[in-house]
Design brief:
The structure is a single chain. The protein contains 11 helices and no strands. The protein has 2 domains: 48 residues, Homeodomain-like (Arc Repressor Mutant, subunit A, Orthogonal Bundle); 145 residues, Tetracycline Repressor, domain 2 (Orthogonal Bundle), CATH 1.10.357. The radius of gyration is 26 Å and the shape is elongated. The relative contact order is 0.09. It has 222 residues and is mainly alpha-helical.
Length: 222
């Protein structure tokens, strides 16, 4: 039923255009009632993006199953690949949706809201992993945005080529930039006591001026 509704919707979108297709038109072609449509899709926009809720749930579960030993930037890059897998499962449908979304501003806005939810899922995970680091929240948000930008750049290039070529290779190449930039340069943990601590070893009978001189020398003061 769900697949039949999606197929009917896209057939009408291609024939009549998105704006000129109603839910009544879709259910009539699919041979079902309006109630059946809304059982699967809250709105006409949702039939254009039928798998994003499932993919977002998969991504959230994937991140939640992470271990402390998992390198966090690599983990969010792997999570982004779940989105690619969703698109690559049906290249023809993905290309049709890409073209349709470009033509309809309302769908473009809807897609951006979906992308934002993916980005927030990645950022929330990274915020947890970077907790206690200097600028941990900032770093988490920047890395999440970079992962989404790199993934989408490669994905859209693949969609513009009508789904030709290896999407996985393109996305791996793009995400490689993110891992190279952020994967091994995370800020160190901030000490629980933010003040610097310095230990000076001196002879017990050393005069005080000598101890002060050693301290100043260590601090690099003239």
């Amino acid at each position: 039923m769900r697949d039949a509704l999606i197929a009917a919707a896209f057939r009408l979108f291609l024939e009549r255009g998105y704006e000129h297709t109603t839910v009544d038109d879709i259910v009539a072609l699919a041979g079902v009632g309006r109630r059946s449509f809304f059982r699967y899709f809250p709105s006409k926009e949702d039939v254009v993006f039928p798998d994003h809720e499932r993919c977002l749930a998969d991504m959230t579960a994937f991140l939640a199953a992470s271990h402390d030993a998992d390198e966090p930037v690599r983990r969010v890059c792997d999570a982004a690949r779940l989105v690619l897998r969703m698109y690559a499962e049906n290249p023809t449908f993905s290309v049709q949706r890409y073209r349709l979304t470009k033509q309809v501003p309302g769908l473009r806005a809807y897609e951006l809201s979906v992308v934002w939810r993916y980005e927030r899922a990645l950022a929330d995970y990274l915020r947890g992993r970077f907790a206690g680091r200097r600028d941990g929240i900032l770093q988490a948000d920047v890395v999440a945005a970079a992962v989404v930008a790199a993934h989408n750049n490669a994905l859209r290039s693949w969609l513009r080529s009508d789904g030709e070529g290896d999407a996985n290779t393109a996305v791996d190449h793009a995400l490689g930039y993110v891992q190279a930039a952020f994967g091994h340069t995370a800020a160190p943990l901030v000490a629980t006591q933010p003040d610097d601590v310095m230990v000076i070893v001196s002879r017990r009978d050393a005069p005080l001026w000598r101890v002060v001189q050693e301290i100043e020398s260590t601090l690099g003061r003239d």
